[in-house]
Fold:
Amino acid sequence: MKEFKTGLQLYNFRRELNQDFPGTLEKISRLGYRGVEFYGNYGGMEPRALADFLRKLGLQCAGTMFKPEQLEDQNSDAFEYAKALQSPAVTFGVFIDFAKEYQALQKRCEVIGKNAMHHGTVLSYHNHWLEFTLADGIPAMNRILEACNPAEVFLELDVCWLSRAGLDPASYIRKYSQRIRQIHFKDIIVPDDPATTCELGRGCIDLQGAYQAACESACEWLIYEQDNTTLTPWESAAISLEYLHRLGAR
Structure:
């Protein structure tokens, strides 16, 4: 059985990180996740200093998210962070009218993909649900991926939002199995209500099916994300890590 690394999306702890960035990261390091994915907040730390701090905590970098405008600039320090942190990819996502604007996003992904490759990494686009709006009968996300260089443009698949779009996560993972390095494992009680995201295994997303499909893919990281919780983020993270361990991720 394939072995995945367990990652935690730091957006889960956005309030705590805004109050005490280094202290919160230190506490997160004791939860048991292999790595963390940054959502755009780097604590005001320089790339090398942040990388050294992660190593001190025994954490790896599961991903780095930025605004697309940053990644379009080949000289942006976004790529310095990605390199110093040894991130598997640089990532962004957008909310647009995908039926009408997917071609503009495709060109944007092509530019960013080339910039990323120039800096020794790849672009891993993070989906929500609107990306699967049909454009002439085909999901816009499919059109974008199939038009871009598969060596430069990858997909960071979010199984929750894919399900909200009415698609089966396992089937989609298999379709683009070699273009996925990270998968967001997110569960939800009511797919159309983002406020009902919940601990893994407590919602309606077919996480087991997604896990089995991921075992056949190029995915390296399973990243737990939970936008909202009725517990504390610490309690939710512990419950979700236990679920990932039961699936077989370490």
